[in-house]
Amino acid sequence: MKRNNAEQIGKLIQQFLRQESLESPLNEQRLLDAWPQILGPTIASYTQNLYIKNQTLYVHLTSAALRQELMMAREKLVRSLNQKVGATVIVNIIFR
């Protein structure tokens, strides 16, 4: 017997996450987890206290020279992180 109302499990999970307003927090956590993958372990070791507020990623750095380098590559980092997550999670990065 064939069922006509079958749906893909991925779509059902995504629909559930949207209904429960869990999609944004999940994407934010994915983005934070992708930070060391995008920048590499060496640069990620100089960063701490990453958090997202109002579509802005806040990053505390322990190196002033690295802060300058990352500020110049800010737009590329935003694009790379959003692309890794597959959604527009952040629009800006603030380095402190």
UniProtKB/TrEMBL annotation:
It comes from the Bacteria. It holds the Pfam family DciA. PANTHER family: UPF0232 PROTEIN SCO3875. This is DUF721 domain-containing protein.
